[in-house]
């Protein structure tokens, strides 16, 4: 009863406010279709998650150069939490304690493009989320048990601009990785730019993942001509041993790339049999370059092939049954569909039309099964549970881009939806697994000349649009806004994740942890001072720390709570630090007591009514050091 009343009140609010909202209808005309009252009411009911009810899906967005991952609930599109990965984040204390500082390795940002949920037998297993850093060529693993970054691997040898990453193979044996930029190898080599075509090299790679711990390590690398790799996809089912990338710059050009890479009518799809690559490594058929095992495909036949495809392709996606590879051409108004089976036949028959640095060029006419006329600027494709594919086209200027829905097998276009922004990626739950969902699609948009939000100055927010794909026609439901650059997302049914609510004490293996305020102590060893501290509602023990100027102080702070949402923070005035210790956790904080004075410290997380009382003092006594400030 109460819920119905609330729903009605809220709904009437939305309807009144929504009087001016324009929801685009179908068939991509650049005009704003009218929206009926019932469209608005239905959209409001479909997206409204009342207090006490939970969202159906988690969505993890790689937030580009923000260097973090945003976690949203669907269908409400509410941002729930931010997971810092490559960028320090004082809100969760990330990058301030010793452990996370060391993991960041001195870098203060990263450029996250493509998150990938780990898979078992081709389906999301909900164990880990992997993300890539294009700027500093790293990979990171987030544990979905506690939504925390646990490992950062890299900078990876030989790879520059790790953009088309981190797609997981069917059992997360490998994560794909590749170079957007080609350089002379190993890193640190100088070659003239005039020699780009011959002396600069690209790399495609598989980062190995330990099946038990998720720990990443260097796997195999394959050296390639200096193409630009744009996107990757792993096979599944029949194609599970294969990896696919889209590449442009078959011209091997430099200079003004927007012109020089657009000369050839065809570029390449790059194909690697990763089982063959794995075997080549086992058989010692590799060279060590920059500390990585690199296969030269010219010397190891059967590892790599290329398939010509029109023109400067951008995305590449494999259908859920593993049978088709869809490659939209950024500069061609079509999405080319290749048959995996026909590709194998072409390889068997040596149906080649030439080679690129010894890599066989497969005859595309023997492999291509369809060209979908999706329109210019086509980028990425996602799949649903009913055999449909959805391809995004960026669009231009006002009016934004389009989502084109088409049928696998018959190749007919069945619907088009104009979005109000220039769309890049789109995401459907499990699209890159064997069993996609069929309820929602999220458009992850780039620019919005005609954007539908309050003006916030020249730098506009990035937008997400939730689209209902349960029926034949796509229906726009909701706009949400996010941090730049909202790049690509993974969506997983909420019931597939079981995050913990606190760290069980039994799991805390930190030898410096103490669990009773009575055990709190300060241990001095020359100029090194160790502080063993507990944090609990609402005090620190010890709460007075007296040291000498110049002392090197190491604090081990254990949050001894074993309850939901009882995190504590630790900040010292004017020490530029924000540490957060979650229940059951021990964090290490290191600093040098630089100058004399009294420096209050306090808990930054509002943890109880007596949160303000959770404080203490660092007393730094001068006079016995040359650094003394009087
Ligand atoms: S890929 S927006 Cu280069 Cu993520 Cu397409
Ligand atoms: Cu602990 Cu505030």
Give structural notes.
The radius of gyration is 27 Å and the shape is globular. The protein has 630 residues and is mainly beta. Strand 11 and strand 12 (242-248) form a beta hairpin. The chain has 7 helices and 41 strands. The chain has a 5-stranded mixed β-sheet, with helices on one face. Strands 32, 33, 34, 36 and 39 form a 5-stranded mixed β-sheet that branches.
Q: What is the compact description of this entry?
A:
The chain has 630 residues and is mainly β. It is built from seven helices and 41 strands. Mean pLDDT is 93; it is low at 1-29 and 625-630.
Question: Which secondary structure elements does this structure contain, and how are they paired or packed?
Answer:
Layout: H1 2-17, H2 37-47, E1 57-62, E2 68-74, E3 78-84, H3 98-104, E4 116-120, E5 123-133, E6 138-143, E7 148-153, E8 174-178, H4 196-199, E9 202-209, E10 216-224, E11 228-234, E12 242-248, H5 257-260, E13 266-273, H6 274-282, E14 287-289, E15 292-295, E16 304-310, E17 317-318, E18 324-328, E19 335-339, H7 340-348, E20 352-356, E21 359-362, E22 368-372, E23 378-383, E24 388-393, E25 402-407, E26 413-418, E27 423-428, E28 440-445, E29 462-468, E30 475-482, E31 488-493, E32 521-525, E33 528-536, E34 539-541, E35 544-548, E36 552-559, E37 568-572, E38 579-581, E39 586-592, E40 597-602, E41 615-621
Parallel strand pairs: 10-15, 33-36, 35-41
Antiparallel strand pairs: 1-2, 1-31, 2-3, 4-5, 5-6, 6-7, 8-9, 9-10, 11-12, 12-13, 13-16, 14-15, 17-18, 18-19, 19-22, 20-21, 23-24, 24-25, 25-26, 27-28, 28-29, 29-30, 32-33, 33-34, 36-39, 37-38, 37-40, 40-41
Helix pairs in contact: 1-2
Bound molecules: (dicuprio-$l^{3}-sulfanyl)-sulfanyl-copper and dinuclear copper ion (CUA).
Residues 113-114, 163, 230-231, 314-315, 379-380, 424-425, 487-488 line the site of (dicuprio-$l^{3}-sulfanyl)-sulfanyl-copper.
